[in-house]
Write a structure and sequence with these properties.
single chain; mainly beta; four-stranded antiparallel beta sheet; 1 helix; about 50% strand
Length: about 130
């Protein structure tokens, strides 16, 4: 069993910044790839960013590229999402996700598919006001 717990959401004005955190606990193993997704009311859950367990590449959705930065601290079993230049359209529940991965980096198309993740957090709300 793996538990993922997000924190750091809140209300911010457009143009502002927030930093989300996600703590992983339980049997993640050494090859645990993690990502961020978000879901706005009435919309499907969409990919934001992902870091494969081996590091190296960090994948981003086009809508957040250049504004959001994802990082991970394997020693602390934590991932982070630094969100800058926030827009009202970034308003959503943000969810941490994880999967036990294979040896290879599966690439953006694979990691951007929410069906490829085994574990999910409860989410943290981000609201950006105009």
């Amino acid at each position: 069993q793996v538990q993922l717990v997000e924190s750091g959401g809140g209300l911010v004005q457009a143009g502002g910044s927030l930093r989300l955190s996600c703590a992983a606990s339980g049997r993640t193993g050494l090859t645990y790839t993690m990502g961020w997704f978000r879901q706005a009311p009435g919309k499907e859950r969409e990919f934001v960013a992902a870091i494969p367990w081996r590091g190296g590449n960090i994948y981003y959705a086009d809508s957040v590229k250049g504004r959001f930065t994802m990082s991970r601290d394997n020693a602390k079993s934590m991932i982070y999402l630094e969100m800058n230049s926030l827009r009202t359209e970034d308003t959503a529940g943000y969810y941490c996700a994880g999967r036990r991965d294979g040896a290879l980096d599966n690439g953006l198309r694979f990691y951007s598919n929410r069906e490829h993740y085994d574990d999910w957090g409860q989410g943290t709300q981000v609201t950006v006001s105009s």
